[in-house]
Write a structure and sequence with these properties.
With 459 residues, the protein is an alpha/beta fold. It is built from 17 helices and 13 strands. The strands form 2 sheets. Strands 3-4-5-6-2-1-7 form a 7-stranded mixed beta sheet. It has a 6-stranded mixed beta sheet with strand order 9-10-8-11-12-13, with helices on both faces. It starts with 6 loop residues before the first strand and ends in a 6-residue tail after the last helix. The structure holds guanosine-5'-diphosphate and zinc ion. This is tRNA modification GTPase MnmE.
């Protein structure tokens, strides 16, 4: 595919800010820069000063639009492999928009979402999984998801896929020869060799598929709710966890004022504590969060932290909420263990059906580490994370891996039952093709559009 037009977009987030950046990519970038930019040092030539910030003004019909720093990067050693111009102007709504309009008038067109990255892919600078990783980096909300995305961008997943796919490529070539010249005395390839390759590949693909559940948690966070009656200590626990994890707290206001998410890291596991508005708000709002509301939040959660005040007797309300936990990953916390206890171990065992119960004091910051350990155990089932694990976090990648896996199994069955080689060849091809969709070696225009539509503007 040959790209001959020039695209432009505002690369920084909208709103008031110190600086804003307008980014231009394509063959006309330099011409546009020369048209609208006037350096303060009159004799500076943009082309002769690549990768330097040049101070000057954006000019529209001899009128200064803004004071800017402009940089020019000559392709192909750029993000898109095309000529790129970046204009650092004042942040805010007006400056960036005026400059973008001027750039468009001078011959660029507005970039589609993700189009800079799409060009980086189409021009062969990165493969598709790396392109997707750039977006994951931008949207990641926990440092764990950021790290995974970084590894994917570096090409860790790509090279694993390539390694597996190379074996298939070689096998396919041998199969083709064997089919074309069946009368050869020494067959190009034996069923045993093919089977050995397939079994190895199948296991590797399987391991990648298995990494998805863990990877998805790392990427999106484990959706966690804290439930319990008013005054049991939910806010206190949240504060204790926040302090313990020393996390960067992101509060994301949703469509309604109620929906707030906070991301915290517990033993390397990002918890997305959802709907904490009720916990954070004044007690009369908490009062309104009744049993029904608890039931709803429990149903939608990946992990439930149920809190009881152990200095008071169990109520019917507590017992009812406990029954909702039956098929859930959940932890029961007996809080306020620093006070005289009103709930006995026997009382609690009757209603918790073997779930783990942890005694804590949110006020005195006791037991928080045990919660951490329990969550870790629950998520990883005791299994330790290794730093070098390649993790699949993208559902699209998982689908392709599953297709490849099925085809490997089919090919194994075919070869095991001594079926004609050309039937197994079809399965080899499907597996090869499916893996290629992850890296973008085999990919349709439609799929590309779908993927890049999810990107943000200016990336
Ligand atoms: P929430 O309504 O469930 O969010 O409960 P809060 O966290 O607002 O706590 C209600 C009251 O219980 C506050 O006065 C807290 O200081 C107190 N509290 C919370 N945890 C403990 C604890 O472990 N021990 C004691 N003694 N008091 C606690
Ligand atoms: Zn509270």
């Amino acid at each position: 595919m040959y790209i001959d037009d020039t695209i432009a977009a505002v690369a920084t987030a909208p709103g008031e800010a110190g600086i804003g950046i307008v980014r231009i990519s394509g063959p006309n970038s330099l011409d546009i820069a020369n048209t609208i930019f006037r350096p303060v040092s009159k004799n500076i030539n943009i082309l002769e000063n690549p990768r330097k910030l040049i101070y000057g003004h954006i000019i529209d019909k001899d009128i200064k639009v803004d004071e800017v720093l402009l940089s020019f990067m000559k392709g192909p050693h750029t993000f898109t492999r095309e000529d790129i111009v970046e204009i650092n102007c004042h942040g805010g709504y007006i400056s960036v928009r005026k400059i973008l309009e001027l750039v468009i008038k001078s011959g660029a067109r507005i970039a589609d979402r993700g189009e800079f990255t799409k060009r980086a892919f189409l021009n062969g600078r990165i493969d598709l999984s790396q392109a997707e990783a750039t977006m994951d980096i931008i949207t990641s909300k926990t440092s764990a998801s950021f790290d995974i995305a970084q590894k994917q961008l570096e090409g860790k997943l790509s090279s694993k896929i390539k390694e597996i796919r190379d074996i298939l490529t070689l096998d396919l070539a041998k199969i083709t020869v064997a089919i074309d010249f069946p009368e050869e005395d020494e067959p190009e390839v034996t069923y045993e060799e093919l089977l050995a390759d397939l079994k190895k590949i199948k296991d590797e693909i399987h391991a990648l598929i298995l990494s998805f559940d863990k990877g998805k948690i790392m990427r999106d966070g484990l959706k966690t709710v804290i439930v319990g009656k008013p005054n049991v200590g939910k806010s206190s626990l949240l504060n204790a966890i926040l302090k313990e994890s020393r996390a960067i707290v992101t509060e994301i206001a949703g469509t309604t004022r109620d929906i707030i998410e906070e991301y915290v890291n517990i033993g390397g596991i990002p918890l997305r504590i959802v709907d904490t508005a009720g916990i954070r708000e004044t007690e009369d709002i908490v009062e309104k969060i009744g049993v029904q509301k608890s039931k709803e939040s429990i149903e939608s959660a990946d992990l439930v932290i149920m809190m009881l005040d152990s200095s008071r007797e169990l109520t019917d309300e507590d017992i009812e909420i406990l029954t909702y936990l039956d098929n859930k990953k959940s932890i029961i916390l007996m809080n306020k263990t620093d006070l005289a206890q009103a709930i006995t171990d026997e009382d609690i065992e009757k209603h918790t059906h073997g779930k783990s119960v942890i005694k804590i004091s949110a006020l005195e910051n006791k037991g928080i580490e045990e919660i951490e350990k329990e969550i870790e155990k629950m998520v990883y089932e005791g299994e330790l994370q290794t730093e070098n694990d390649i993790m699949v976090t993208n559902a699209r990648h998982k689908n392709s891996l599953e297709k490849a896996y099925t085809s490997c199994c089919d090919a194994i069955d075919a070869l095991d039952s001594n079926i004609e080689l050309d039937i197994a060849e079809t399965d080899f091809k499907i597996a090869w093709d499916s893996l290629g969709q992850i890296t973008g070696d085999t990919v349709s225009e439609d799929l590309l559009d779908t993927i890049f539509r999810e990107f943000c503007i200016g990336k």
